[in-house]
Design goal:
single chain, 411 residues, alpha/beta, 9-stranded mixed beta sheet, 7-stranded parallel beta sheet, 14 helices, binds NADPH dihydro-nicotinamide-adenine-dinucleotide phosphate
Length: 411
């Protein structure tokens, strides 16, 4: 029996659930739980119709450790896949320890009231997971996730020392909306509007948001302006591969997206602090009531839902690692990447490519755990496990990868 509990039923959760159901020989018993149970029920209906698989569902508030613990003790999963929001990482990890479940996620913890992410909060759980004999696998989406596995694969097979690592993430898709984000708008806008950060010669160097940019050529896509950003996997990768002298992360944005983002920031709609708003609801004295709202959460409520973008999304994503280093005394360059078509992702799962490239690796990580290949008490980033069986599954599960040697890395 491989019992798995998936928490979160958004874009990424929908893809992961399809993939769990497609691999029912490994995942014998699946429950999907989220804040809104009706969404879990609707997805369970699709899975039953498409794959003939029955999936249990439940409502749970993932901010509430007691409620989570109760659900886990009732269902008794061996592994919990966290596909809710980064705010819930620590409560879900606590509940896993209470109920004796292993843990996997795709994004590192972020406090709600501060747009800041780092691994220290989750790494602090290492001893407790070790002592409980439970495994926690951190950051198992695409980036973080496959970006770390690509790096581990390069280090294992193609380099004696990695010197520079550039993770390059291009979305060359078009959803035909004026402005929309590809995953949870609140998390996405918080990430993009914060300062840039990269690693060089043992130090972290901060930049203004999106200050450094240059065109990078992506396979099958061509040149796209790419912006240096702070991204969480750099923190663990430079620690786990200490020969890295420079580690950077680049993401493409179109000019229209950046113009909208600029306006959103300048008019205060990306603020994450509470403001008082006089709501047109009257209290018993007939006066308008003052309510507190967070502008960015309000904006999320009026923006297109990333889950609804798939149908008209064309084009593809291209994400990979460009690496320079030494093999057998000689300088070597290596580029490993995946391209993913938004339409193909939509045809298979009803979701666009960004959700697909995250949900598939989450399922593969769970598969690695249940096969006993990635089962080790403690808290681990994905690059600390053997990359080979994961790379093999990427090719089988819809995210085939390609490699190029001796290429001009442009960076
Ligand atoms: P969505 O907003 O589409 O989905 C989030 C889901 O979590 C929804 O089902 C939501 O429920 C649920 N949820 C939110 N809060 C709670 C709560 N308190 N209790 C229970 N359920 C809750 O987000 P995405 O699917 O786009 O993203 C999911 C995760 O994947 C995020 O952590 C994101 O950062 C990460 N991600 C990682 C990437 C990577 O490559 N590593 C790339 C893209 C995303 P409801 O429907 O009620 O709102």
């Amino acid at each position: 029996m491989s019992k798995v509990l998936q928490i979160g039923c958004g874009g990424v959760g929908t893809v992961a659930a399809h993939k769990l159901a497609q691999n029912a020989d490994i995942f014998s018993d699946i429950m999907i739980a989220s804040r809104t149970k009706s969404k879990c029920d609707a997805l369970a209906g699709v899975l039953e119709k498409t794959y003939g698989i029955k999936v249990a569902t439940a409502a749970v508030d993932a901010d509430d450790v007691e409620a989570l613990t109760r659900l886990m003790k009732e269902f008794q999963p061996e592994l919990v896949i966290n596909l809710a929001l980064p705010y819930q990482d620590l409560t879900i990890m606590e509940a896993c320890l209470n109920a004796g479940c292993s843990y996997l996620d795709t994004a590192n913890y972020e406090p709600k009231d501060e747009a800041h992410f780092e691994y220290s909060w989750q790494w602090a759980y290492k001893k407790r997971f070790e002592e409980a004999g439970l495994t926690a696998i951190l950051g198992c989406g695409f980036d973080p996730g496959v970006s770390g596995i690509f790096t581990a694969y390069a280090a294992k097979h193609h380099f004696d020392e990695i010197h520079t690592l550039d993770i390059v993430d291009c979305n060359a898709g078009n959803h035909h909306k004026a402005f929309a984000t590809n995953f949870n708008p609140e998390i996405n806008i918080r990430e993009i509007t914060q300062k840039g950060l990269y690693y060089k010669d043992g130090e972290w160097i901060e930049t203004e948001p999106l200050e450094i940019h240059q065109p990078i050529t992506y396979p099958n896509i061509g040149p796209r302006e790419s912006y240096l950003m702070h991204h969480e996997e750099l923190e663990s990768l430079v620690k786990n591969f200490p020969t890295i002298r420079q580690g950077r992360f680049w993401m493409t944005f179109g000019q229209q997206y950046l113009t909208y983002l600029d306006v959103i920031q300048n008019i205060g709609m990306s603020r994450i602090d509470e403001i008082e708003y006089e709501a047109p609801l009257s209290d018993s004295s007939g006066k308008n009531v003052k309510v507190k709202i967070v502008p960015l959460q309000f904006l999320k409520a009026v923006l297109p839902n990333p889950q609804d973008l798939g149908e008209n999304y064309d084009g593809e994503t291209s994400i990979g690692c460009r690496i320079r280093g030494i093999k057998d005394g000689k300088e070597q360059t290596y580029y490993v990447y995946n391209n993913c078509s938004h339409q193909a992702a939509y045809q298979e799962t009803g979701m666009q490519g960004v959700s697909y490239t995250t949900g598939v690796p989450a399922m593969i990580g769970a598969m690695m755990y249940f096969k006993g290949l990635w089962k080790r008490p403690g808290v681990w980033n994905v690059e600390e496990f053997d990359p080979d069986p994961f790379m093999e599954q990427l090719n089988k599960q819809g995210l085939p990868w390609h490699e190029e040697f001796g290429k001009d890395l442009e960076l």
